[in-house]
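Archive transcription. Copying these from loose printouts into the bound notebook so they stop getting lost. Printout 1 of 2:
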Amino acid sequence: MLTQPPRVGLFVTCLVDLYRPSVGFAAIKLLKDAGCAVDVPAVQTCCGQPAWNSGDRADAADLARAVIAAFEPCDYVVAPSGSCAGMIREHYASVLAGDPEWRGRAERLGARTFELVSFLTDVMGVERVTARYPGTVTYHDSCSGLRELGIKAQPRRLLGTVEGLTLAEMPDAEVCCGFGGTFCVKYPEISVRMVSDKVENVERSGAETLLAGDMGCLLNIAGRLKRLEKPVKVRHVAEVLAGMTDSVPPIGEAP
């Protein structure tokens, strides 16, 4: 009996769209390789997290309604970001708590919303990838992915199947890098200290490349590495898992 492949709506995220489109293409490749039919709704916009975290409840609610309406036809919503996936999955019901109809729609969409690597391993049962990345990498656990969505072992499990790759854990891999969305704007001195500590731990790992699953963290750490003239490369984990690192330079480096 033939069954239809799951229809996955890719939530691209603002930072991927504006700064690193290659992550979106890597996500599409990984999802298709896993047997999914992928849609990228053209009307999608920000998930609303910056507005929500800044206390702008009205705009956050408007953005949440727009995302829900755009992605409701899909079987699943997948984002290459624990932060955005966490917003949709864990917070939309609170954003729309005052409207019973929209709250219900938010809960139903949230239940089928996942971060990319978690979706591949936990929902689609992907156990390995066909990719090669020679060298030593270390992995930074983003706060939202780790604490809201329980993403820890999943990326490491798939990275262990990448040919030529060696994973070297850094000290305090689970500690925030200091980005925190609007946090780095509100508290720049604290943020700089936190990302400087993260850079020191990256160096202590001895890795040549830093990987993570959230563009906010990656842009923040890559920027600090660049300012300190450190040679560590920075990439989104999806690019490595999809075997697409030859077509795009590391984050923060010129083509």
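Printout 2 of 2:
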Amino acid sequence: MHGPDHHLHEKHLKSSDFITDMVIGMSDGLTVPFALAAGLSGVAGSASIVTAAGIAEIVAGSIAMGLGGFLAGQTEQEHYEAELKREYEEVERVPEREKEEIREVFEAYGLSPEAQEIVVEAISKDKDKWVDFMMRFELGLEKPNPNRARNSALTIGISYIVGGFIPLLPYFYVNNPVDGLQYSAAVTILALLIFGYFKSKVTGQNPIIGSLKVTSIGAAAATAAFLVAKLFQ
């Protein structure tokens, strides 16, 4: 039976994972296709070339980013399971050393030796709880959500697609790619400012500085791509 704190903690972890993945996908989705479209605008004869290349990049980028998120989630799960197995073996093989590690944890919190012994005996009575304690407090590992890899892949991939189509949309409505770039720059810079603001609010940074930082990175990438394309034209 889990108490309300457990459910709040679990919900917090899941929402943190979702926000992290969304930020990863949206950051690259807004920046990479924008830079690609800007670069092509300097050399392409029509806006349709930019949209075709942009869509191809968004498809490839979302798959690559999603797979990266999936593999990262799988690695996290595999790492947790390997450490869990090792902790069970150590509790069986060297219980006194593991008990000493519990004492060290509570000694750091200022508990007296007598209080440490009471806690050690209470925890070590139940092997599962003992191992869970060691995983959390010795190794700093929380049990990952078993759906973490799948959820991460979907969140990152979809966020990349959403972010990627923002700079690309203006090119669907113009013939001249340079005109498309002007509208795309305005739309994307606005999107980057808004995204950077909310990203900074969520992560506890100064939202104005964070917003300008995210926007300047996107603008610098697009400018560099445009100038390089012009240079090799």
